[in-house]
Amino acid sequence: QVALLDRNSEAGQESKEALDEQFEAQRTVFIPCDVTDPEQLKGAFEKVIEHFGRLDIVVNNAGVNNEKDWESTIQINLTSVIRGTYLGLEYMRKGNGGDGGVIINISSLAGLMPAAFQPVYCATKHGVIGFTRSIAVTAHMENYGVRLNTICPGFVNTPILQSIDKEENMGQYYSYKDEIKNMMQFYGVMDPSIIAEGLITIIEDDTLNGEVMKITASQGIHFQQYNQTPFTSSKR
Question: In which domain of life is the source organism classified (predicted)?
């Protein structure tokens, strides 16, 4: 049972119709939602609970590449991920009457390294990783029963790649679009299906919490290795 949220109603309906061809129509629901609008996002979560009766998995996946309107990029790529995570925890954490669950926040390889000509996009993706790793530690210490992990793909064949050709997205970095395209050619562009494969891995492996999954054309699915967290407190 899947709920789809998107501000693009046409794309959302198309996705639902594609799923309806394989599954019973009542097993999916599309909810138009602008994730930057707190009331819309909260209302969408309420509609999901109303429709399905429960919530087990949240994937915060909305993202844009817009260096010109960088405030909007922060709102969509980072602020909405934080808000979506807190809403998911509100419904799923055990201390609040929930049954536990999984939250997966989509970052990017740009969250682990510099991204020339995309500094704000890069900053938001670094933020997603830092927030998710931190709240995952909290969830473990407080026995929320919710696992939180991050996926960091390389270049993926989705409409966001088209933004590189648009001055209204790239702003002062528009003249460097060919350099970004050369990077895409060098590193390779992946099919979205491998990202879905990584997503299923995180959902099914209940040992994963606070992990950062990297997915690249050259190495496939693997994980970022970190040193052990220097300080952990016992649950109060």
Answer: Eukaryota
The closest of 166, 218, 167 to 190, measured between CA atoms, is 218
Buried b (16+ CB within 10 A) or exposed e, 192-229: eebbeebbeebbeeeebbbbbbbbbbeeebeeeeeeee
From the candidates 86, 91, 121, 144, give the one annotated as an active-site residue: 121
Euclidean distance between CA atoms 4 and 61, whole angstroms: 11
Q: Express each pLDDT in 177-210 by its tens digit.
A: 999 999 999 999 999 999 999 999 999 999 999 9
How far from each other are the two terminal CA atoms of the chain, in whole angstroms? 37
Catalytic status, residue 121: yes
pLDDT in tens, 65-109: 999 999 999 999 999 999 999 999 999 999 999 999 999 999 999
